[in-house]
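User: Fold this; tokens only.

Assistant: Input:
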Amino acid sequence: MKEKREHTRLHYEVIIVGGGQAGLSVSHYLQKHGIDHMIFEKHRIGHSWRNQRWDSFCLVTPNWQCRLPDFPYPGNDPQGFMLKDEIVEYIEAFRSKVNPPIMEGVSVSRVYRGKNGGFNVTTSAGEFTADHLIIATGGYDIPIVPDYAHSLPGHIKQIHSVNYRNPKQLPEGEVLVVGSGQSGVQIMEDLHLAGRKVHLAVGNAPRSPRMYRGRETTEWLYDLGFYELTIDRHPLGDEAKHKTNHFLTGRDGGHEIDLRKFALSGVKLYGSMANIQGTRLEFQTDLTKNLDDADEIYVNIRNDIDRYIASNNISAPVEAPFRKAWEPEFDPVSIDADAENITSIVWAIGFRPNYRWIELPAFDGRGYPQFDRGVTHVEGLYFIGLPWLHTWGSGRFLGIADDAEYLSGLIHDKLLVKS
């Protein structure tokens, strides 16, 4: 199919928007098929890892799960957890291997259907067209900060987790972290280890063991087939795409995070954030429920592993049953930030995708793309790199290769038919 490159260079068989690990993975397979394509990357490859993570950031999944296409983790610590700079090095090394056709520093502002049935792509480098379009920008575009945050007095600093780097950037005093997903609990721990007094508004994120019965939990889950579970087989169906990931950490060799134990160490816990009125911070009365729900998932994972060990006659150490380390006496309703000496708030409640630049009927009422394994109902439009694109591993280094190979193969077959 390379003979089509004789056309103007403003047209490509495939345009990929986004040059992260997902976009690079697709390029790897498209090149194997000899398919003419171009990647537009708004920033520099590795931008989000390099510029939108805190200083002590590391992976929460072990290095052995880093399996980009034909490029598994090359280091000597497969059980470890790559730090931010190491992740960037891994992606840059993958880029060197793939040697993709890419235009960095080029943003895409509009995508719409062309007169001849293909796609028109408006970029900061000009107008382009394509027969097929792959969106590999991820879903972490707009940091979520609630509207009521505007009522917080100016003397209390507030930032989103995407802008958090280290405890020193926050003013002296106590810190409220809002959100208990992976970012929230890791930032909470980062502050706590630095000796800062921390408050945490606990949401409904589930948690996971790190080690269990003599083995890292993700190894057990891999053997159980959890990472190969497809979205169509998930009990929650498409709603699983909107669920928060289990929290734990890879810091200092990896460990689980039990918020009850942090409460015993001085971290003050509250329920989900509900409102702000001046210095008055209000919370929902769901702290007990959120802690219990997270522990229920934690115990369920242990039980799944227990059953797997028993059914396969595996010899493994036996561990004591789970016991709650701490119980809240009541669910706090509100506190006064000034009275508690809270001088800063870190919002860690996630992101919203921004696909408004895609003028195609591929989205649901909430603005999320609709697809089946990345293939939309709009002929020639695809998504990749999103959680639960196909499996639990789709949004991770572990599962991108399978998704990229599938989409590139599908496009290859369609181009063959067309030719």
